[in-house]
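Final report, Chapter 2: Outcomes

The project's central promise was a pipeline that accepts a single protein chain and returns its three-dimensional structure in a standardized token representation, suitable for archiving and comparison. That pipeline is now operational. To close this chapter, we reproduce one record exactly as it appears in the project archive, with the input sequence first and the structure output second.
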Amino acid sequence: MHRLAGLFAAFAILCGSATSPGFAQDKSLTVFAAASMKNALDDIDAAYTAKTGIRMVASYAASSALAKQIEQGAPADVFASADTDWMDYAAAKKNINEPTRVNLLGNSMVLIAPKDSKIDNVAIGPGFDLATLVGDGKIATADVKSVPVGKYAKASLEKLGAWTAAEPKFAMTENVRAALALVARGEAVLGIVYSTDAKVEPGVKIVGTFPADSHPAIIYPVAATVTAKPEAADYLAFLRSSAAKAIFEKYGFKFLVSPTT
């Protein structure tokens, strides 16, 4: 009888251990994040996994595509958008947990060319003649109707008086990293991307920076989805930490919140 009781006790200990903190590595979180965040967020996710044992799964695409996927029931725990419009869209569809939302990062927008291009030091301001600058070539950016960087680019060019002439020369891509790749491969003479994208691609160079007041502020909000696992709250806290701030700033992002320890 004592032997049987001992076996039951051992079994209970084994079952209990399966839910103990030591088994945190069996847990995972899925993050849907704007394509421009990939390099920085990969590093941050690796740091978070090392700290907690929680496995991170990241899906990178245009914020527009991610918001629509979440709306259609894709299993994301966290949404990180490259603009407030698509986070507002997710909020309106009741797909994010609104109290968890925070405007985490800022960025700037630049004009890029292949690294061996003769184009250099472009002054971007009112009257900027982008159409003449690109000649018979193409300008790469993401879809100006839906993808954040494309929307920012169009807004800036409209304000500077350069959009109408340049519009026929645009090659639209599904996200900012696809536009970056076109320029890096020399398939586009110029491109409009975030400064953080240009920083991680050795095949391009920055030839000009768009004035911050020529387009809406570039803001990256993050939030937990309404279907998020409980661990998402701790991950969002980590995104606001000093450790995450150091990584984001290394890649050129502006950190818009006061970091936690």
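Archive annotation: The two ends are 53 Å apart (CA to CA).
This record, like all others produced under the grant, will remain available to the consortium after the project formally closes.
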